[in-house]
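[Discussion] Sanity-checking designs against the backbone

I'm trying to build intuition for which residues belong where. Below is a structure token string of 137 positions. I'd appreciate it if someone posts a full sequence so I can compare it with mine line by line.
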């Protein structure tokens, strides 16, 4: 049976705490200087701790900066819009190419089917305009 454990483990009592050096990377398990550490060791540890703290503060500032986050979101949206626009352009080009291929024969001239379709479309359009003009009277 497993129980939750709050607090230090028995084997860790008396050992100096371990601290990470870089919040973005794996922790550096460098212990605090020993009680009998030299002044140079203590100064080195203080300098390292200051660097770690400066890195942590910089990273948090970057992550929590509303302007930077807004800029990041604008860049993401702009990238998605560019991708969608490119996709729409490619789709339109493909449709135009298919329509051109369907409307022309092997010799590159308009096919009889294309002429018939165009004539029918123009005829329907003229008919609708004429009906509209007659109703307007």
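Best answer:
Here's mine. Compare freely.
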């Amino acid at each position: 049976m497993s129980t939750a454990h709050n607090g230090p483990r028995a084997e860790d009592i008396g050992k100096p705490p371990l601290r990470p050096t870089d919040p973005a990377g794996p922790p550096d398990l460098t212990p605090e200087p020993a009680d009998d550490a030299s002044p140079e060791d203590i100064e080195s540890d203080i300098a390292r701790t200051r660097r770690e703290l400066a890195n942590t503060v910089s990273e948090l500032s970057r992550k929590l900066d509303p302007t930077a986050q807004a800029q990041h979101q604008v860049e993401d949206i702009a990238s998605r819009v560019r991708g969608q626009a490119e996709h729409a352009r490619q789709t339109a080009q493909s449709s135009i190419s298919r329509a051109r291929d369907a409307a022309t024969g092997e010799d590159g001239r308009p096919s009889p089917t294309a002429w018939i379709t165009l004539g029918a479309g123009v005829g329907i359009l003229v008919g609708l305009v004429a009906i509209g003009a007659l109703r307007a009277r």
